[in-house]
Every structure is written in C-alpha cells, then in structure tokens.
Amino acid sequence: MLARSSLRAARSARSISSPTVTSDAQRNASSQSSSESAAAWKSNGLLASSTLLAVGSVSWYYYQFGRPTQAMTPAEEGLHAPVHPWEHTKLYKTFDHSALRRGFQVYREVCSACHSLQRLPYRKFVGSFMTVDEAKALAEESEYDTDPNDEGEVEKRPGKLSDYMLAPYKNDEAARAANNGALPPDLSLITKARHGGCDYIFALLTGYPEEPPAGAVVQSGLNFNPYFPGTGIGMARALYDGLVEYEDGTSATTSQMAKDVVEFLNWAAEPEMDDRKRMGWKVMAVTSVLFGLSVWVKRYKWSNVKTRRLAYQPPPPNAQKQPGSVFRR
Ligand code: HEC
C-alpha cells in the first residue's frame, strides 16, 4: 500500500513538473502587466485585513463574554490547595486498604463526634478493611429502633450489618446548636462535593496555622483556615500529632492521619473504584483485541476490491469479421 501510494505521488509529481506547467508559466509571464500585479496586491491585502478582522472580533467576543465569571474574589474563594500525587487516583492503582483501615479509625475516633457518614452501611466495610466479625461487632455497638410490635411499641435492638451508620446528632438543628450555628456536613460524599476533592480536604485538615496571620479578621467562634472559602471556618483544628494510636504501628502525625482519613473518605464516596478500574482494564484488553481483529478482517475482505484492476478493452475494429471472435454479435 505504501509502495502504491508513493508510486502515485511520484507520478503526480512528474506530471506537475511536466512541460505543460513550464509553458503555462511562460504564457503567464508574457501576459503579465502592472495592472495585474496591483490587483494581486489588492486581493492579498483584502485577505489579510479580513483575517485580522475575524481574529480580532473573535478575541473581542471572548474578552467580553467568554471568560468565566467569579462570584467571589480569589481571596474570598480560599487559597488553592496544593496538588498531591494521590496513589489511589492513578489509573492502575487500587486504594491502599491498610490506609483505609487507619482512615476509618481516625474518622471513628475523631470526626464522628461531629460528622455523620450516613450513606455507608456496615456491610460495605466487610472485605474492604474489616472482617465480617469485626464489622458485626462494630454494628452491634450502636442501637437502632425496631419495627413497631403488636402494641405499637418501638424498642431498641443492636445494629446489624445491613444498618447504616448513625449520625452523632438527632437532626441538623441539634448539630448546629452544638457547633456555634455551623452545620458539620455529612462526609459520605465530601471528596466529590468540594472543589479540589482530596487535595482540598487534606489542605483544610492540615492548614490551620498556630495563629491567624497579622491583619486577618477572624469572627468570634470561627477559626482561621486559609483554604476554607472566606477563611473563617466553624470547625476548629481536629488533628494533632499522636491523637490516635494506630494498631499497625504507623506513627500518627497530623499529616499521616489527614492523608489516611482523606483516602478513607474518598473510598466512602467511591467504594466501587477498585472494581471499576479492574473492569476498565478488562474492557480495554478485550476491545483492543477485537479492534485488531476487525482491522484485519476489514483488510482481508477488502483486499480483492483494493487490488483489482478494471480495464475496458474496446473490441478490435474487425472483431465481427473474425470467425470465433468473442465480440461477435
Ligand atoms: C468538634 C466538631 C468537629 C470535628 C471533631 C470535626 N469537624 Fe469537620 N466540621 C465541623 C463543623 C462545625 C463544620 C462546618 C464548618 C463551617 O461551615 O464553617 C465542619 C466542616 C468540615 C468540612 C467541610 C468544609 C467545607 O468546605 O465546607 C470537612 C471536609 C470536615 N469538616 C472534615 C472533618 C474531618 C475529616 C474531621 C476528622 C478528622 C472533622 N471534620 C472533625 C465540626 C467538626
């Protein structure tokens, strides 16, 4: 195919440099006059100015209407979180399941005092970072309402694997009342619900300065955090070095705990990620084989069409006269 196309190219190149072109050029040269060159200048100028006008009007339109509008200034928006190379976000990586176990421990011992995780049932923990028995024991620590009995009484029962995690407060109002009016959001989908995802939450948890910088105005009851939009956040710094004791011996620094809990929260928002990636690779493997096959089949089926040559052979002038000629009518 390559050979064929290069042959074709060579042929056309030859036809371009053939004497017909030279004679054309000579003819043009002999008939060229000053009025013609002025016309060429005019059309070139017209072309250039209309291009300039088009480019100019597109850029003016973009300047006027195309740029994104921001409701808040960058300062009000909060500091941009530094981007970290999260292992689990790579295409070929799963969650680090021991980090998930540590992260859940941090959530349970620290964040669950204020934040709910209501979209997660205990059964999800099984096989991810807990055994069945551990998850059952954890579920049984919480009490849930039973269905009403024959007398309409609602009783309490220990939790089961199918139960969802309980919220720390009865309702949003109780949560606000306990937190100076600020509502601690449910953390089930928080990595998806915030601009910057994992990076933002990591920056938020580790970004509390010892003291607010000089000149910063912090309302009473709020804490200074440069990453939070508006910089005044209702949540005080939650993580301090050595706050939890990891059972696998990892040293519990603030950033280690923040990293683990962020990875855990990402798992909570996206528990299907490991399966999704594995399935994705399978799909890529199968479809690339199928693609290769279909390219081969196409070439195979078309090879007859691509390599045949159709030629018209006019009958020889005396065909009819010749006895036994195929052209005889
Ligand atoms: C003492 C209660 C308390 C604890 C403990 C706590 N938080 Fe918060 N958190 C809050 C409150 C209150 C807010 C709402 C702040 C606001 O809107 O000003 C909040 C907000 C947040 C937000 C949302 C910020 C935003 O952009 O809206 C995240 C994320 C968060 N907390 C994560 C955590 C994590 C992770 C932990 C555990 C390491 C934790 N919090 C521990 C009270 C708490």
From TrEMBL:
A GO molecular-function descriptor: heme binding
Enzyme class: translocase
Positions bound to heme c: C111, C114, H115, M235
Region: Disordered, residue numbers: 1-34, 139-158
GO process annotations (BP): mitochondrial electron transport, ubiquinol to cytochrome c
Cytochrome c domain mapped to chain residues: 98-251
InterPro entries in UniProt: Cyt_c-like_dom (IPR009056), Cyt_c-like_dom_sf (IPR036909), Cyt_c1 (IPR002326), Cyt_c1_TM_anchor_C (IPR021157)
Cofactor(s) this protein cannot do without: heme c
Subcellular location: Mitochondrion inner membrane
Cellular component GO terms, alphabetical: mitochondrial inner membrane
EC number: 7.1.1.8
Cofactor note: Binds 1 heme c group covalently per subunit.
Keywords carried by this UniProt record: Electron transport, Heme, Iron, Membrane, Metal-binding, Mitochondrion, Mitochondrion inner membrane, Respiratory chain, Translocase, Transmembrane, Transmembrane helix, Transport
Reaction catalysed by this enzyme: a quinol + 2 Fe(III)-[cytochrome c](out) = a quinone + 2 Fe(II)-[cytochrome c](out) + 2 H(+)(out)
PANTHER family tied to this protein: CYTOCHROME C1, CYTOCHROME C1, HEME PROTEIN, MITOCHONDRIAL
Similarity section: Belongs to the cytochrome c family.
Name under which the protein is recorded: quinol--cytochrome-c reductase
Gene: CYT1
